[in-house]
Amino acid sequence: LEIVTNRIDRLRDQLKKPRPGKQKELDQQELALLERINAAFEQGKSGADLGLKPDEVKAIRSFQLLTLKRE
């Protein structure tokens, strides 16, 4: 949860700064995905229950979230 929260904070800070359009769009997509995951974690849900698309899983794979694995 802390890793996701820290990344959300960093993305919000980055979105305030001028960046190329493509990078800003990718940051916004990642922020929306992480906010969705964070909300699920706060409700006590598993990341595996979110029904993430393959491209969304690929985007957050670097976080190595154990809750994305099925039991």
Instruction: Choose one word for the global shape.
Output: globular
Total beta-strand segments: 0
Q: Structural class from helices and strands?
A: mainly alpha
The helix-strand sequence is HHH
Radius of gyration: 13 Å
Q: Extract low-pLDDT stretches.
A: none
Which bin fits the share of residues in helices? 55-70%
User: Which sheet architecture does the biggest sheet show?
Assistant: none
How confident is the prediction overall: mean pLDDT?
A: 88
Distance between the termini: 19 Å
Q: Name the beta content range.
A: under 5%
Q: Please tally the helical runs, counting DSSP H or I stretches of 4 or more residues.
A: 3
Could you walk me through the main structural features you see in this protein, from its secondary elements to its overall organization?
This protein is mainly α and 71 residues long. 62% of the residues lie in helices and 0% in strands. α1 runs antiparallel to α2 (21-42). The longest helix is centred in the middle third of the chain and has 22 residues, at 21-42. The mean pLDDT is 88.
Highlighted features:
71 residues; mainly alpha; globular
Task: Please give the structural blueprint.
Layout: H1 2-16, H2 21-42, H3 54-60
Helix pairs in contact: 1-2
